[in-house]
What we know:
The complex is a heterodimer of chains A (about 180) and B (about 625). Chain A is mainly α. Chain A contains five helices and no strands. Chain A is globular, with a radius of gyration of 20 Å. Chain B is mainly beta and about 625 residues long. In chain B, strands 3-34-35-36-37 form a five-stranded mixed β-sheet, with no helix packed on it. Chain B has a four-stranded antiparallel β-sheet with strand order 4-40-39-38, with no helix packed on it.
Amino acid sequence: MTTTVRTRLSIAAGSFAFLLFLAAGCNSSKPVMVAASTSPSTTVAVGPIPGAEAVPAGIKNPYDGNAVAIQDGRRLFNWYNCSGCHGGHGGGGMGPSLRNETWLYGNQDDQIYDSIAAGRSKGMPSWGPKIPQNQIWELVAYIKSMRTPQEADPPLEPSAETVQPPTPDMPSGVPLTK
Amino acid sequence: MDRVKHISASLFWPMVLCASLAACPFAQAKSPADGASNPPQGMTTDVPGALPGIHLVSPVPNGQWLLPAGDYANTRYSPLSQINTKNVENLKPVGVMSIGIPHGFEGQPLVVGSTLYVVTPFPNDLIALDLTKPGFPKKWTFQPHPDIRAEGVACCDIVNRGAVYADGKIIYNTLDDNTVAVDANTGKLDWKTQIGTIKLGETITMAPLAVKNIVYVGISGGELGVRGRLTALDVNSGKILWKAWNTGSDADVRIGPDFHPYYKKDQGKDLGITTWNPGQWKIGGAPIWGWLSYDPELNLIYYGTGNPGVWNPDMRPGSNHWSCTIWARDPATGMAKWAYQVVPHDSWDYDEIMEGVLVDMPWKGKERKLMLRPSRTGFMLVLDRQTGELLSADPYVPVNWAKDFNLKTGIPDIDPAKRAHFGKYTMDICPSSTGGKDFIPSAFSPKTGYLYIPAHNTCMDYMGVAVNYIAGTPYLGASVRMYPGPGGYHGDLVAWDVQHQKKVWDIKDAVMPVYAGVLATGGDLVFYGTLEGWFRAVDDKTGKILWQFKTGSGIIGDPITFTGPDGKQYVAVYSGIGGWMGAAAFPSMSTDDPYAGLGAFGAMRNVKSITSPGAALYVFSL
Lengths: 178, 622
């Protein structure tokens, strides 16, 4: 694992400095010192391996199930623009949903970590050089919390008063005006 | 006076267009010298049955389909009438071709001579079909092999909105920011020019327009902090001639002494810099991804620009010129003639990129040169296209973000309670970001004087959130949730009487937005599709559905019509759900997150139970 970790983002415009400050102030989870030996290897195969069943690397998320880390992961999910591609609460958009049962590159902690750190084809950037390791683990914790009772800030449907149901006597496409 | 000008203009038409024969889109027309009084082959200025006083500035397609909208004026009208209200019930599919891509199939084919050309969604293959043989077999396929990483920076599915024919070439854009020109006969690449870079979040989805010897290309990426611009390329060589930026200095924007914006708010030096917080204009969005038009008499090209970046409006105080702006420019030099910013300091993602439909018609007792714009704002805008004056703005869907437009100042009367802000949801804004209508093109019939608008009825809750600019990633800064609007319906095909400024009939869709383009024909028919997959022919005067056929997937493409080598009239349309809203139908998307897909999936939560992806071309005839 030779991924360079930079703890600072390169920010284009100075006008965002105040937002950065806000974010730093909200970072309430304790940074975990992640030893180099616990970083997953990006050389783990992401596809099926011929012959005997592949053995997962098995590195677990140090934040697994940690409610504070899940909250922080939720904040970082917006902060690093994950929500812009994967949807406000991970339902997808430019990139695939993270809420459904389909995991193109595996749903184990280290596999999700690898997808974030190393990037994937079709445009998932390699975030290893941009996001500190502990924050990637927080993102993993948040992603794994989706659709569970632990999910931070789960998506809310609009209230029933806001959204009117389809008019029952209006079958799709029947002209209303003669 | 106007009429006299018109007659002379119609005589001049082919000569004006074909001043350079080699670059003429109608080069197949025989002998332009003695044919000056004849319409160019495949197009006509003769529209039988047109209402008195209605004139089209550009010949309409008559047999072929050479330009994205069929004509330069974006009417999407063809006088072909073999298929008409009396016999349309006998319409049947005569050719169906899968293209093997489970993504949104936007845009429309071209028909040049006896060949039909299809541009696919990414990887943007160009497929030529032989119309002389039964079943329309493939002649050849051109593969540009765009960079696969482009998929990751495309905001709203990996779509493409089609090609333009010019100078014996099929010219179109690839998602990874290249414009390609392919020999229409051989399928061999003529030239390829890089216009942008995916590393800055830039993609291209729009169909280019070619006028004389220049092809015009915009850029997408309003959600990724791009800096929008129009690029002009030489049709023969692909060489870049000039760029007109949508933010920055007057020099960059190509504003000079000939620039005369109608409204005071659009006058002033370097508004593309001074109406932004320092530096923000460099990542200020304002992309161009809709439809261009061209007026051969006034010799102006028209187009609109998209939303300002970032979506969080409090991060970019100011009017944010020249986002959400309509432009008129000299086609040769690109110098601006006028501009009108429709939405100052956009807070809702109301891109003003849709088609400007150019029609000359009586307006309040006087013959006027109009531009009709069924705007994403939910207002039907009518402008004087000579000056950029706004003549009227009437809602064509439920609207509450603004009460009206002040025609004297050009400024919308915005409800402050419906402005979006940082850190707090503004609830129940109508229409939603997807607009009263998105880029999906309308059609105008000179026989009825109606504009046929494929409309949505969606509203939204919108909150600005903190976001960093990281090049090549979404620069969004908003949490948005959309849902169907008031009235218990979701989509609407609206027939709009332009002169009387009112809806005359509509076809409401209870379950889905209308997200397909429209075609109007001399057979008194309007064709359009639904997201359920129905392809329909409708009586253009009454809105009565006369015929429908269920295609394989939801329709987000635009119908065209042409005359085959056998002399029969055909109608063709793409079927294949996708695009911004339709992407919710993909297996890789979840509809239990109404904030997904930039908030659009909230309005689409039932889509998976209604249709499935799978792109195909359908061709119909009697």
